[in-house]
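Q: Protein A?
A:
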Amino acid sequence: MAEYKASGATVPADSPCVAATRAYAEQIRNKPSPLNAVAMLAFIDEAILTNMSQADPVCLASAEAFFASWAVGATEETANEAASVAFLDAVAANPDFNPGSPCGQAAEAYIAAAGAKKRG
């Protein structure tokens, strides 16, 4: 992820990478929590719809925090907390962040699913 961020690489919405990510997400045995799955799929769907071609610094910061925490053995809940803090810090550091972006849509889907879970 750090190499991708540093390279400024772009990924077309119809790339094999996107297709593989979606297929992987649907087939993995140890699926992420429903909240993380909702956010991940919302991000992928919006990235495809908008033909996103550059990494979003807010989502990259959040993803890096999640995986850094997960890599040292944190639970998914703890990794989500690290990602949430990084997300908020990155939004504050990027005043041009667009809440309608794929990253913003993923956050909105996560929050909506979390709210539904609390009510349900």
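Q: Protein B?
A:
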Amino acid sequence: MSRNTTLRRASAAILAACALLWAWLVVRAPIDAMQGPIQKILYVHVPCVVGAYLGFALTAVASFAYLWWRRESADRFAAASAEVGVFFCTLVLLTGPIWAKGTWGRWWTWDLRLTLTLLLYLVYVSYLLLRSFTEGSERAARFAAVYAIAGLAVIPLNYFAIDLAGGRTVHPENLGRGSLGAGMGAPFAVGMLTAVAAFAHLLVRRLEVGVLRGELDRLDAEAARSES
């Protein structure tokens, strides 16, 4: 059994265990007195935010490593992490409006945090588009790396959006100690752990795809040279 297969199976097993425990805890979690059952989206929405933040932060770290060492593996890791981050950010933008409709009575409002979340999503979708249009170009890879690092600045803006807005926002404040009611802490914490496990599993699988693509490109280049 190869190392990649072992890692893939281990990450899948950890994810499955976390997801089952998380689902059981969410079902047993109490119903919020103010919002009702719709509040349980919290256990999905916020963990997905963590997955998005993690993906984009690792994209920036890997991009910096690529600029420093010029290693293809770092560039491949950056692209994989960005794709997984965009996946989680998509879930954030899908679950958020559902929660908003049930709580505020409307799907979307140009609240500062919502607007910055959309901006964060568009920044890294643009990063992936840039890479797809310039595949194989070292110069484009360097530009994409700089772009990914610069895009990271949106994360602290997004996190502190409520403070930046001076409280003039419909979005709830960031969760702190004691913010959750009795019985809500465990499903929330396990939800965060499940998001990290899901991120790790998806990243492992995406890196495998990147390695296979690199191998196919190498074989195609060798075949082209042998024919010329």
